[in-house]
Design brief:
The chain is an all-beta fold. The chain is about 0% helix and about 30% strand.
Amino acid sequence: MIQTAENLNMTTTPKSPPWKRWALIIGKTPGGKRLFWDEEDERSANYWSNFLDHSQEANVHLLIDAKQRTARLIATRSIDAGEELFLNYKEYDPANWAPD
């Protein structure tokens, strides 16, 4: 399974309020500011990314290219039909919020 996102909503100031924690820290800018992949609008072709939840036992991984503003979602194991998709948010930056 591979899903590609293009023209990602990348920003140093996410529109998601901090209490929602929907923006994923994906790296840093050349100037050292945190770079976020912010939540996507419902009309966006990348809206599927809003439904990737956190788990220590992730079954998918994002390969993010900030320069090209793309991401590829790659399955890390066989995933059954109807099974939820999980990322390990901490894999992208230790400061990402994740439930205990």
